[in-house]
C-alpha cells in the first residue's frame, strides 16, 4: 500500500513524462490541432531559414570580419526547428531538445565539425543543421526510452 505522498510523486512523474513524450495521435503539442500539411509547412520553413541564414551569415561574416560571428543567431533558430521537427513533445521535451541541441552544437560530432569549415554563411548554417539532426535523433531515442520504461 502506498502513502498519499508516494501516490502524488508517482502521479507527478507520470504527468511530467506524459507531457515530455506525447502519444503520436496527439500530434505536435497537446491541445493544438495539426493539419495534414504541417510537416510540409515545417520543411518549407526550415529550407527558407537555411537559405536566408546562409545569405545573412555571409553578410554578417563580412560585417564583423570573423567566421560564425556571435551576434548571428539564425543558425540556432534553424537548429531548434530541426531538433523539434516531428517530435511530439511538450515544454519539458522542448527544453530537453534545447539541451541536446546545445550539447551537440558544442561537441560538434563528425561531420558537423567539417561542415563548420565551409565558406561563408553555408558554414554558419550547415554545422548547426547537422548538430540539430543529431539532437533530433537523440530526442527521439529519449522519447522511445521513456515510453518503454514508463509505458
Textual characterization of the structure:
This protein has 151 residues and is mostly helical. The chain has one domain (4-150). It contains 6 helices and no strands. The chain is elongated. The relative contact order is 0.15.
Summarize the helices and strands and which ones pair or pack:
Layout: H1 4-20, H2 38-64, H3 74-84, H4 91-107, H5 112-115, H6 120-150
Helix pairs in contact: 1-4, 2-3, 2-6, 3-4, 3-6, 4-6
Cα radius of gyration in angstroms: 18 Å
Oligomer: single chain
Largest sheet, described in full? Answer: none
* Structural classification: mainly alpha
Distance between the termini: 21 Å
What's a concise summary of this model?
With about 150 residues, the protein is mostly helical.
List keywords for this structure.
mainly alpha, 6 helices, 151 residues, elongated, single chain
